[in-house]
C-alpha cells in the first residue's frame, strides 16, 4: 500500500549570528508559502568574510513538507 | 544550438510494501500536477520500524520533466 | 540577525554545441519565470551519442535565486 | 534542552528473494536483542552470483533505536 | 603471496517489473559470455516514466568474475 | 609494533537548542556506559520542524573510545 | 519483464583544445570497435600543464552501449 | 575574458565554545597574514572529548582570498 | 527466504609499522570478544607525525562478523 | 626508494567565456610565482548569473607542482 | 586537436601479504593480455578474516592502458 | 574560547617501494620547511606502471601543522 508523499525543496539561508539562525531563516521563509513542513537536512555550510571577520553564516538546507492528497 | 530543458524535483515516497511501490507513490503524486515526466533517480532508501518490523519503505527520488517552451 | 534567503532549483539543460551552452540553456529557461537569479552549481555532466558521435551535451545544474521578502 | 538519543548499528542482511527481504532479515535479527527500533537507512546493496544467477541479495543497513534513559 | 584476481565490469540492466529483475537481467546477460561470475554491487538506481507511470526500473551494477590463470 | 585500538560507535543526538547541544547529548549518553571517550566526528546534521519552526536539532555523530587491553 | 541491457566502459580522452573535444576523442575511439553507443557520463576532469600553460584537457568518461541479444 | 582568481587554503580551527567560534578562530588566524579573504566552506566538523564531556569543537574550513594581480 | 545476518562494527587500529599492521591490530582486538569475523573494509587512512616523522599509521576499519541464530 | 614530491594548491579561476578559460586563468596565476606546474584536477564548476544570463564561469582547480629538492 | 585515448578497466586483486602485493597481482594479471599499461587508481581496500586473523588483503584498482590507433 | 589553529597542506608523495614510503616521502619534504607537523590524512592512492609492473606508489596526503601564534 502506498503511503504519504513529501516534497523536498532546497533553500540557502543566511544569518549574521549562527548556523542555527541561518537554518531558521530558511525554514521561516519556507513556512510563509508552504504548510506541513516536517524535517530538514543540512546539505552544506559556508560563509562570507569581510575585513578578516566572518560576516555571514550560510546553510544550504533541504526542507521536506507533506503533500496534501 | 540549445536543446530541451528539464526540471528536476525531489520527492520522498513511502509504501508499506516495497521500494518499487514507494517510488511509484512519488511518481503518481508528481503526475497529478506535472506533465511530461521523463525519468527518475533514486537518491536515498530508508524506512520506518515499529514493534521490530519494517512498517514503511521510503525512497527519496529525483523526478525529471520536460519544460514546455 | 537573519539575512537573505535563496531558493535553489535543479534543471537539466542540453545543447548540441558545448557544456557552456547547455548551462546557458537551463539558465535562460529559469529566467523566463524567475527573477534575481544569482549563481549556479554544476552537479553532473552527461551526454547523448548517435551513430558514434556526441549529439548532445547535458548539464544538471542547481540554480539559485533570491527570495523576495 | 537536550532531547532523546538514538544508537545506530550497522547490519548486513541477506535473502534469496529480494532487497526488502534482506532488510527485513537484518531488522528481525536486531529486534531479537534490542527494543525501540525506530528507522533504518540503506547504506549499500550488493549480491552473490552462482552459476550465472543471482543467489543472494545483500543489504547493508544502519538501524537506529532509542536509548532508554 | 598473490591470490586470485577478479575483473569487474559495469552493466546497466532494465526491467518493467522490479530492481531485482533489472539486476537479474544484467547478470543473465553477463553470464552469456563470462564464466565464474561471483558477486555484484549496485552502483545506481534510476528509471523511466511514461504517461505518469514508472515504465522501467534501471540498475547500474558492477559484476565481478574470477580470472582464470 | 601494534598500538592502541579505538572503537567507534554511532549515536544520533537531539536538542531543542543547538547542534553543540545535540552533540553534547549524544556524548553524555555514551559516557554513561563507556569510558575513555576520545573524539567524535559529525556525520550528518538534520532537524525537525513543527508549525513552521525548527523544534529539534539532530546530529549523527561517530564517537570513539579507547579499548582497554 | 526484463528489458534491454547496456554495457558501460570507461575511457580517458585527451585534447589540446577543450573538454568537449577530449570527450569526443574518447567517443570516437569507442565507436571504432563498438556499435550502438547511447550515452556517456563525465566522471572526472583533469589536465596537463607545461611551461605554465594548460597543454592537455583530460576527461574520464563512462560510455554506454546496447548489448545485442 | 579571464576574471579574478582566488586562492583557497585549508585551516583547522578549534574552540571550547562552539563551531561558529572554531571557524572564527581559523578566519582570524588567516587574516593575520592574508588580505581580501572572501568566503569559507566547512569541510568537516569534529571534536575532542575528555572525562565524558566535549572539550573542543573542531572545524576544518577552506578559506578563499582574492589574488592581487 | 532470509539468509545469514552479519553485524558490522567500526574500529580504529594503530601501528608504528604499516597499515597492514594497523588493520591487523584492529582485527586482533575484535577477535578477543567476537567470533566468526568474516571480512573488513578500510574506511579511512590517517596517521600521526612527531618531529617531522610518521610515528603512527591509523586505519579506520569496518569489521563484519556473522550473527549466531 | 622515495621519489619526487609534488605540492597541490587549490585555486578558483573565473572567466566570462568558458570553463577552459577559467581554468587557464587559475593556471596562469599560479605560474607567476610557481615553477614546474605539472597537472590540475577540476574539483568544482560553478558560475555567476546577472540579469538572467551567465556572466561568469568559475572553476575550482587543484594544481600540482614538483618540489625542488 | 584530439590526443591519445586510454581505456580504464577495473580489477580486484588479492594477496596474503600486503596491499602493494594485491595491487601487483591485479597489474600482473592485466599485463598478460594488455599492453601499454600506464597508471592505476586504488578504488577500495578490503580484506578477508579467518580464525580472527587477516588472511587476505583485497584491492579494487582501476588500471589504465593506452589505446593503439 | 578559541583554541589552537592548524594549517593543512596537500602533498603528493611517491615511492618505488610502498605507500608507507610514499607518505613518508611527503612528510619528510614538508618537514624541511614547516615545524610542528601533527597528523596526516590519506586522500588518494594511485600509482605508475611500466612494462607491466608497478613502478611507483603515489599517495596524495593532507598534512596538518600547528600555526604559531
Instruction: Using the coordinates shown, work out and report the CATH topology of chain A.
Output: Dodecin subunit-like
What is the count of β-strands of chain A?
A: 3
Helix percentage of chain A:
10-25%
Helix/strand structural class of chain A: alpha+beta
Descriptive account of the structure:
Twelve copies of one chain form a homododecamer. Chain A is α+β, with helices and mostly antiparallel strands. Chain A has a single domain, classed as Flavin-binding protein dodecin (Dodecin subunit-like, 2-Layer Sandwich). The first copy, chain A, contains one helix and three strands, in the order βαββ. In chain A, strands 1-3-2 form a three-stranded antiparallel β-sheet, with helices on one face. In chain A, a hairpin with a 2-residue loop joins β2 and β3. Chain A is elongated and about 55 Å long. Chain A starts with a strand and ends with a strand. The mean pLDDT of chain A is 96. The interface between H and L is medium-sized, with 18 and 14 residues. β1 of chain F pairs antiparallel with β1 of chain I, so a sheet runs across the interface.
